[in-house]
Amino acid sequence: MEDWLFRSAPTLMATLDEALVCRQASHGWRVRLGLLPAADGLALPLSEILDVEHTPGLVAQLHDAMRGEAPLHDTPV
C-alpha cells in the first residue's frame, strides 16, 4: 500500500539510490517529466530531475541526508 501511495502522490517525491539516481518517482514528478504512464525500472540521473548546476551544495546535502546527518530544507525544484 505504501508503494501505491508514493507512486500516486501528486506531490514531488522521488526515491534516490546512493549514486543519486532516481529509482522511483511520484505521480507529480512523472507528470512534470512527461513520464506517464508509470514505467517500471526507472533510472533517471539527478540532473534530469533537479537543476543541480544552479543549486550549489545540493548534491552534498543529499548525501548528508542519506547518511542521516541533516534534513533538506527549502530546496527549490
Keywords:
three-stranded antiparallel beta sheet; alpha+beta; 3 helices; globular; 77 residues
Could you explain how this protein is built, in words?
The protein starts with a helix and ends in an 11-residue tail after the last helix. A 3-stranded antiparallel beta sheet has the order 1-2-3. The protein is of the alpha+beta class and 77 residues long. The chain contains 3 helices and 3 strands. It has one domain (2-66).
- Compute the number of strand runs: 3
Low-confidence stretches: none
Integer tally of domains: 1
Distance between the termini: 27 Å
* Mean residue pLDDT: 83
The geometry reads as globular
N to C succession of SSEs: HEEHEH
| Helix content estimate | 25-40%
Over the alpha carbons, how many angstroms does the gyration radius reach? 13 Å
What is this structure, in a nutshell?
By secondary structure, the protein is an alpha+beta fold. Helices cover 30% and strands 13% of the residues.
What is the fold's blueprint, element by element?
Blueprint: H1 2-8, E1 14-16, E2 21-25, H2 27-33, E3 44-45, H3 58-66
Antiparallel strand pairs: 1-2, 2-3
